[in-house]
User: Fold this.
Amino acid sequence: MPTGKYHPQCYNCLNIKYRNQESYCSKYDFVMPRITQETICKEWQLSDSEDKRCYGYAPSFLESERFHALEPGFLYYYSYASPNEPFEKLGAFEKLKFPIMGISIHEDRQFGWVIHIRHHDRNLFPSTGQKINLEVDGNEYICEILEVQRVMATGASRNSSGEWGAKYDTVSLTIIRCINSPKIIYEWFCSYFDVKSIPRHHESIDRSDFSKDLGFFVFIERLSENRYRLLLNFYQYKPFKKG
Assistant:
């Protein structure tokens, strides 16, 4: 469940159900995405089984302009931490038939730009060494699933003088690398966002390498056993969107 569990979202809607260890909307029969943002639709209704703390947010939410602006038939995503930002469309109900997961893209010293798969989504990808087809803006690329170890900044704190310092650890990662196109993921992301301004924005927050090792957050959709498609996370980088 996303962080804002007491805020209106699919996971406290009466239509959310579970089958085969996956959550889905019982009213429109689509698979719930595995993303960290909250998801919502025009027909959200608070489940009676939810914690009563949820009720404190419901009235103002249902009366808000951004809720009234939602179009029927679409699933949206948002962050409870940004209460004034409009919701972003994730897709029409009839197109949400495959799992969508949150991932991050990073520059790797050995393989170029790669995808980091979250541990709890590992079961939705083939075994190590297997090839997959990755769709990027309508074009398909041959990629490989790998297990690697990398030294990364895993935290940040201030020292006695008040300056930020990053904490580094060796971490085990499951990654996807594009075999013959090591830059295609980054070039795809750059075509939609002013990427050079994003690290500066992160550095203004904590001034450490920790923000740089976060990578860029996007989505990936599992179309079949060995076919996937990259999707943009417009909500996360809305201030940096080109055009």
About this structure: Confidence is low (pLDDT under 50) at residues 200-208. The two ends are 33 Å apart (CA to CA).
